[in-house]
Specification:
The structure is a single chain. The chain is an alpha/beta fold and 505 residues long. The protein folds into three domains: 3-111 and 140-252, Rossmann fold, CATH 3.40.50; 115-137 and 261-458, 3-Layer(aba) Sandwich (Rossmann fold), CATH 3.40.50; 463-505, no CATH class. 37% of the residues lie in helices and 13% in strands. The chain contains 17 helices and 13 strands. The protein has helices at residues 11-14, 68-78, 93-96, 120-126, 144-161, 177-188, 206-215, 226-239, 250-256, 258-266, 284-298, 318-324, 354-367, 380-391, 399-413, 435-442, 482-500, and strands at 26-30, 36-38, 53-57, 115-117, 129-134, 169-173, 194-200, 218-222, 242-244, 274-279, 307-313, 373-378, 422-427. The longest helix has 19 residues, at 482-500. The structure holds pyridoxal-5'-phosphate and zinc ion. Pyridoxal-5'-phosphate (PLP) binds at residues 142, 144, 177, 247, 279-285, 345-346, 398, 400, 428-429. Residues 142, 144, 177, 247, 279-285, 345-346, 398, 400, 428-429 line the site of pyridoxal-5'-phosphate.
Length: 505
């Protein structure tokens, strides 16, 4: 809809005004020593103490001057605008990047992913009402695009200002999806931005490997696991002129906050009785989701904070283990050695964002009248079983989506979730990225370390039909004709009908 056709009172708010002195003022803040830094430079850690940073809006209070109800109308009407820059995560421009001019925004179709209610069969199985939010329907088929849209919009803005050199190399370590996403966005900004990605050798799926290759990135495979790649990338970013795109980069976190904003908007800003469930790997996403809900809460856009449940596989569970200790004083973070996991994108033993999680969980719980953030671990078996069951009921969940659903069931059993709660389960990527694990399940070929044995009811495999009595069958380039072809069609359909036990009309 054109601007002039919106209600007059909403028109001044629809297109963010960056000329106002009253606008946002973003700064990096260190979570350890509290030191603040300007954003003209791309910083990852505090130059004083080395701790991770978060980006804050020093002028955030201005957003509280607009009532929650008016914000609802701004966001809901803004959805009808046909301005590319505001169609994705920057629909929430004031909250995600109030200093980024619209012409610096990179929009590749990310965000506003579908929220799909589970059918009654699946809800009955799970015991509770729930929806999947399909973040696999982002352009590179995972939620990582939310953070990349933010990080690359910032880079484009800084290149324009001359603060970042115009031949910048974007670099990241990845469990697969970060590199797919970074390479995609970098390729859009060619020739200015080039990209290189570091992957743990044989620890990403063929689909994930194909993505940065297809986008034209330089792809390096390194022995070890993600945590090893991360150290190499960190060493590179300290010594060379590169832009690090891992979630250490706080711009990624800002973009991923859009997930919370969308959930709020999807449910008419009513977060009472809502539970958001998401997997944890490097812990960037849960950081963003907490931060996003907190910002909407502080500005009165939502009146309650939803429960948040972070889930980890038993094979990569450092965050879960940390919170096992109920006494906050006694908690001590110990990195774990990861074991093979089908939730491969979350196979991280030493999450970079752990200090951010500790910081925000504290705030989140103390802003509510009771504990609102919970951590759960699930078995590899449950992850696969729930993923496959979900996808047999109309979903496109990846293994991490299965992990989140398994956590929903466990949380309900543990009474963390109540009967009347409504859960939003994050399927962080598309099922197709992890189809190799489905294949292993169906063929019962999981290596022992996964500890997964298939449930026969969930196995599916193709059936080859070739009627034995037929002499000739078609082949590529060698079609059958006449009576042979008629015979082939007749006999083959007969065998299929038999296999399916079809009744004649
Ligand atoms: C990156 C990723 C995760 C883990 O997210 P973090 O922000 O690293 O905690 C989970 N699922 C998928 C599909 C991912 O790509
Ligand atoms: Zn510091």
């Amino acid at each position: 809809m054109k601007l002039e056709n919106f209600p007059e009172d909403i028109q001044p708010y629809l297109i963010p005004d960056l000329t106002s002195d009253e606008g946002g003022r973003l700064i990096y803040r260190c979570l350890e020593c509290g030191q603040e830094y300007g954003i003209e430079k791309l910083l990852y850690t505090c130059p004083e103490c080395g701790q991770v940073l978060l980006i804050y809006d020093a002028n955030f209070d201005r957003l509280k001057k607009i009532s929650g109800e008016l914000w609802h109308r701004i966001f809901d009407y803004r959805k009808m605008l046909k301005i590319s820059a505001l169609k994705g995560i920057y629909l929430y421009h004031e909250f995600i990047g109030p200093i980024i001019p619209l012409d610096s925004i990179v929009y590749l179709g990310e965000g506003h992913t579908p929220v799909v209610e589970a059918n009654s069969f699946l809800q009955k199985k799970a015991g509770i009402r729930f929806y999947f939010k399909n973040d696999g329907q982002n352009p590179s088929a995972s939620f990582k695009d939310r953070g990349m849209a933010s990080a690359f919009s910032y880079i484009q803005f800084m290149v324009g200002k001359g603060y970042i050199s115009s031949d910048v190399l974007a670099i990241c370590a990845s469990t697969g999806d970060t590199s797919a996403s970074a390479a995609l966005y970098a390729s859009y900004l060619k020739p200015h931005v080039k990209s290189a990605v570091l992957l743990p050798h044989k620890k990403v799926t063929p689909q994930q490997l194909s993505q940065p290759l297809g986008s034209g990135a330089s792809v390096f495979e390194i022995p070890g696991v993600f945590d090893d790649c991360m150290k190499v990338v960190e060493a590179l970013s300290e010594k060379y002129n590169v832009a690090l795109l891992n979630s250490k980069n706080a711009w990624r976190i800002l973009g991923q906050e859009s997930y919370s904003y969308e959930i709020a908007q999807d449910f008419e800003y009513d977060m009472s009785d809502k539970v958001v469930i998401l997997p944890i790997g490097n812990a960037g996403n849960i950081t963003a989701v907490m931060s996003g809900f907190l910002k909407f809460y502080e500005t009165g856009i939502i009146k309650t904070l939803p429960k948040i449940i972070g889930v980890q596989s038993k094979h990569a569970n450092p965050v879960y283990k940390y919170y096992l200790e109920p006494d906050a004083e006694k908690r001590e973070f110990v990195p774990v050695t990861v074991m093979s996991s089908v939730a491969q994108a979350a196979m991280i033993g030493n999450p970079v964002s752990m200090p951010r999680v500790i910081h925000l969980v504290d705030i989140y719980n103390s802003m509510s009248d009771k504990q609102k953030v919970f951590f759960i671990e699930v078995s590899e078996q449950d992850i696969m079983d729930w993923e496959l069951l979900a996808n047999r009921n109309g979903h496109i969940a990846c293994t991490h989506g299965g992990e989140s659903l398994a956590a929903l069931v466990s949380a309900y059993e543990q009474k963390i979730i109540e009967k009347n709660d409504v859960a939003i389960v994050d399927s962080t990527a598309h099922a197709l990225k992890f189809s190799g694990f489905q294949k292993m399940y169906f063929e019962n070929s999981f290596p022992e370390e996964f500890e997964i044995s298939p449930n026969p009811d969930l196995i599916n495999s193709p059936v080859f039909i070739r009627p034995k009595d037929l002499e000739k069958v078609p082949a590529p380039g060698k079609p059958l004709t006449g009576e042979d072809f008629k015979q082939f069609v007749e006999r083959t359909s007969e065998e299929i009908a038999n296999a399916l036990d079809l009744k004649k009309v």
